[in-house]
Amino acid sequence: MRKLSTIILSLLVISSLLLAACAPAAPAPAPAAAPAEATEAAPAEATEAPAEEAAAEATEAPAEEAAAPSGDVIVATPGQAVKMVLMPKFLGILVFDQANQGAQEAHAELGNTDELQFLGPTPENSVAGQIEIVTNATTQGVQAIMISNNAGDQIAPAAQAARDAGMTVVTWDSPIPSAEGEQLFVAQVDFAETGTVMADMARSILGEDGGKFAVLSASPDAANQNAWIASLQETLTDPAYANLELLDIVYGNDQSEDSYNQALALIDKYPDMELIMAPTSVGIVAAAKAMQDEGLCDTVKVSGLGLPAEMVEYTLNGCAPEFALWSFVDLGYTTYYAAYLLATGAMQGAEGETFEAGRMGTYTIEKDPTRDAGLRIVMGPFTVYNADNVEAASK
Amino acid sequence: MNTIRRRFQPEQIRELVLIALIIGILIFFGTQIDNYFSPRTFTRISTSVAVIAVVAVGQTLVILTRNIDLSVGSIVGFTAYIVGTILSINNDIPPVAVVLMAVAMGAVMGSINGLLVAYGRVPAIIVTLGTLAIFRTVLVEISGANSVLTNELPRWLVNLPPVNAFTLGPLDIRLLFFLAVVVVIIFQLVVSYLPWGRRLYAIGSNPDAARVAGFPAQRIIFTAFVLSGALAGLGGFMFLARFGNITVVAGQGIELQSVAAAVVGGVNINGGLGSPFGAFLGAILIDVLDNSLIRWLAISEFWRDALLGLLILLAVATDTVIMNRLRKVWARHELQVSGDGEPPAEKGGAGYAA
User: Which pTM value belongs to this model?
Assistant: First the structure.
């Protein structure tokens, strides 16, 4: 709706100017131009990816820091001074704060004597704000920056400048599509696996006889969402999933109100739909709330990627019997290790290098199959939540 | 023709034209979408128009004075979030107190705008763009990245959206929609009959004349901003009730939606013309289009925004052309009348200040 209102206003302004030209008496709402432009740069695309509080199954065992470099596995030397910045898409969303918790944990664990800052733009200024933070970090002696990119390739020049100035640039959660200016992407899960996880949940909810479902995504140009949906469609071509039919893909732009309205529209459009799959933490709660308000939880279920703390009510009352996620705490933790190793020169960021990330174990850098030029490590795993384990995870 | 001219003003005809447009659009989509003319469609549109209608009424009060309030999006989000947080800590606050708290919180934020615009003489667009960003940033800072969750809210609030005020034959009039209609009616009466309301038009039409005439322009503009904030606060409460899960981006974009609703509804952005009822119709027109287009299988997701923009453009352009014709006819008529030495026909409300 935000984008839409901008369009409406712009059109109104144009129309009124045209009309004013033809008929001088026309009331010309010219000042509206300013607000329309002013908010144009605000595609605050909220988190696509849910997380959980301290991972349900993650063990709290601290990493053995004293381990000597053994074989090919690169191990961090604690106690070095690296000035670091962790940058979320924007501030104020729980999952990014959880990532910061994980990064702070690794920061303390490695005894980094310099500081780790959690810096992010405000929601309405995400794209410009991210670019500004990268640029400022370059001039302020920051040695490593960890980016959850919300600016597409627009951030690439700033990231490249940071690289040229000798900084370490690691992305997490959402990569730079062209991989320009980025050394390594810490992927939360294998994007191809997401489709299988969603298809499996659909099959488990709809039963052996299958059924019809629709996808409620974030914005039409969110790279990770599109990769996940493509992977879901790919999975559905497998004969094992032949009785699942994907009716439609709609976009709620990660706003509660848009997602809620889209969910209602889906049930009006497709009376025989039995499931809404929302791979976004905002969309999944909005869809569950919509089904609950409509009293439809018995006939139309909701699933996808969501936060246990936000989903517990709907999972227990049967509106959203199953959903999946990964741990953002672990993602922040792993990202910190990768950035620390790169910044201290222990790791070069070349394909095939294997390193140890504290309690998370070892990872090997590989080519990113979703991007031509990118390198990545894959963290994983997914945890599927249902009525049995959602309460414990939501605490 | 003369009787029509004497009875109606162009602005009233504009509202009739808007209603005709809405009916025309409904008929068109009725032929396109299965089961369109069902109580369900009414419920969908009425519930989704409620929040924006309340905010658009406040916006109208401000625009009438030749100002604009762009901070309402942040006020809606701020009150929804803060009231939700307070409620999740203490579930036992009585509903009336909750509503009053939201309205008061909005009024306080509106008074900041009002002080700066009316007494500080800073242009409204600058002040409210500033507070739009400031309120949102304060919210982001104090939220600590937590969201308001439905399972922490009291049951009466979570179960509020499907509650009916009453039923009209097969149509369910939801409580939240009813509340919005009551707000529209109250403020329509205020701007039509109360001296304070009439002065909004006077100030917007000609600020200098209003000052010379001795109107307390500053106080009136200040009050308009306070009311706009208070209504945005009420909108925040309704937003909280409807969506339950509130993040820090809640309400983003409502500032533009409310301006769009007002402008489409015939409120002149240069002040002095329009009414809360018109803004309500504007909100309905946009919402009918939006809700119908997302249910229309014939067009893809990606064309929806463009088509919506085009339809609104057409609607407003038609409306403006007709209005200009009408104004000329009326004006010519009055010239004739006064030329004949007769007293001009009663001018009714809005006049043709533009």
Answer: 0.76
pLDDT in tens, A120-178: 988 777 888 999 999 999 999 899 999 998 887 889 999 999 999 999 999 998 888 88
Per the structure, the complete domain to which residue A237 belongs is given by 191-325
Looking at the DSSP assignment, which residues form a beta bridge with residue A354? A73, A364
A265 touching B (Cβ < 8 Å): yes
CB A285 within 8 A of CB A311: yes
* Same domain membership, residue A184 and residue A254: no
Tell me which residues of chain B have a pLDDT lower than 50.
342-354
The answer to whether residue A64 sits within a structural domain is no
User: Do residue B245 and residue A310 have CB atoms under 8 angstroms apart?
Assistant: yes
Angle value at C-alpha B148, between B144 and B153, nearest 5 degrees? 140
pLDDT at site B6: 67
Report CB contact under 8 Å: B308, A8: yes
ipTM entry:
0.79
Cβ under 8 Å to B: A residues 13-72: 14-16, 19, 23, 25-32, 34-36, 38-39, 42, 44, 46
pLDDT of residue B299: 73
A92 and A164 together in one domain? yes
Q: Is the per-residue pLDDT at A292 higher than 60?
A: yes
Q: How many domains does chain A have?
A: 3
A107 plus A121 within the same structural domain: yes
Phi/psi of residue B27, nearest 5 degrees: -65, -45
CA distances to B8, B13, B136, B328 from B345, rounded to whole Å, are 11, 17, 50, 15
Residue in A2, A3, A5, A390 to test binding to B, most B beta-carbons within 10 Å: A5
Mean pLDDT score, A39-50: 40
Q: Hey, is B336 helix, strand or coil?
A: helix
A316: confidence class by pLDDT, cuts 50, 70, 90: very high
Residues above pLDDT 70, as percent of chain A: 81
Residue A183 and residue A332 in one domain: yes
Substitution target from B294, B307, B323 for chain A, most A beta carbons within 10 A: B294
What is residue B68's predicted lDDT score, i.e. its pLDDT? 94
Please judge whether A12 and B144 are an interchain contact, meaning their C-beta atoms are less than 8 angstroms apart: no
CA A96-A99-A105 angle, 5° bins = 145
Whether A55 maps to a domain, the answer reads no
Contact A12 B264 (CB under 8 A): yes
For residue A221, the domain's CATH number is 3.40.50.2300
Query: Do the beta carbons of residue A50 and residue A95 sit within 8 Å?
Result: yes
Q: What single letter denotes the amino acid at residue A112?
A: N
Chain A partners of B316 at a C-beta cutoff of 8 Å?
Answer: 12, 15-16
Strands A375-378 and A366-367: antiparallel
